[in-house]
Amino acid sequence: MSTENILLIAFLTNSVLLVITLIMIFIFRPSKKDEQVIKKQMEQEAKETILRAQSMAADIVKNANAELETSKQFLKTQTDQLLKTMKDGLSETLSNTSNNIQTTTTKTLEDYHQSLLNLNESLKNYASELQQKLGAETAGRIDQFNQEIQKEIASVRSLNQEKVNTRLQTLDQELDKIKKEHYEALQKSIFVVLARISKKVLGRSIDISTHEQLVIDALEKAKKENFF
Amino acid sequence: MDESKIVAENLKTKEDLVEKIDSLNSLRMLVFKDNSVDKTALNQAYLAAFGRNIDENLSSNREALSTLIDQTQNYLESLKVVNLTLAFEPSHEFLLRLKKFFQEALGQTVVINLVVNPTIIGGVILENNGKYLDYSSAAILDSAFQDRDFLTTLLQPET
């Protein structure tokens, strides 16, 4: 319990006693005559009571102050001790933690280094193994690919040869056709030219009597053929 | 022989026929005019249409003259026309020879519708009653030049 609370309780207690006393005095008040005596006695007693109460309050305050001082000292001592303990503990903890971290870190680094070495070794082995496998696989594939390419080349050669032969045959046929067409066109042109020349030569060379005879011959022929 | 046939006998070509029908039409126009037509003019028109002078009776009988004109024109328009293409311009004598030939062949008076086309070279092209006959030298040559095998053998050098 704090000092303020103790003082407050003491003050309240004295106040209650004072009120009760005053009530009792009022109830059992003496006669007019005694009243003054009683009044004086009561005033005296009240004064004494107040003095006692004041004395008690002063004692209480004094004790409370002493108690407070003691508490302060105790609290300060406890606090200092606690702080010292905490400081020492923290320092120790920090020291331990630092040591632990350093140890752990060193170990972790060593483990990590070892792991890396192991991993490196594994990778080296794996790479070597992979290289061998890849080498074998690649060689196999290359052989296979080479064989397929050879087949394809042979096939393409054969196909191309066939196409070339077919194309040559077609070209030969087309060439023959063109030759024939040109020959026929040439023949036709020659005949056309010959016909024109013949007509012109004939047209100029026929005299009137021959013309007339040609007409008469043609009409006689038509008559024989019952044209009329 | 009546006047119409005499006129027809003297026609050789279709051009002659057209010219004669024109003459008949000119004469008809004079006949249908009033009586004041000059006799000389009438005689000249008659001479052009019929080839001889008009006699006095006919000259004064316009109705008879008109009938003669109509009959002649109808006859001329009924004449058979033979289409004939030649390569040369025929002489008058040759045309008469041709006319005689057609009249004998067909048994009637004909006029020739003559076309001169030198490209047929020689011979004749005939059209009669919708029938066509090409006996031209050009056609014969064309036919000969169609026989390529024959021509090819001609083109070979002689051995």
Written account of the structure:
The complex is a heterodimer of chains A (228) and B (159). Helices cover 95% and strands 0% of the residues of chain A. Chain A has 228 residues and is mainly α. By secondary structure, chain B is α+β, with helices and mostly antiparallel strands. In chain B, 57% of the residues lie in helices and 16% in strands. In chain B, strands 2-1-3-4 form a four-stranded mixed sheet. In chain B, a hairpin with a 2-residue loop joins strand 3 (123-128) and strand 4 (131-136). The longest helix of chain B has 18 residues, at 14-31. The radius of gyration of chain B is 23 Å and the shape is rod-shaped. Classes of the chains: A mainly alpha (228), B alpha+beta (159).
Question: What is the C-alpha radius of gyration of chain B, as a whole number of Å?
Answer: 23 Å
Low-confidence segments of chain A, ≥5 residues, pLDDT <50?
Answer: none
Structure annotation, total helices of chain B: 8
**Sheet with the most strands: spatial strand order of chain B:** 2-1-3-4
Fraction in beta strands of chain A: under 5%
Structural category of chain A is mainly alpha
Structural class of chain B: alpha+beta
End-to-end gap of chain A: 170 Å
User: Total number of β-strand segments of chain B?
Assistant: 4
Give the CA-CA distance, first to last residue of chain B.
68 Å
Chain pair forming the biggest interface: A-B, 27 and 33 residues
What string gives the helices and strands of chain B in order?
A: HHHHHEHEEEHH
User: How many runs of DSSP E, i.e. beta strands of chain A?
Assistant: 0
Q: Order of SSEs of chain A, N→C?
A: HHH
Largest sheet of chain A: none
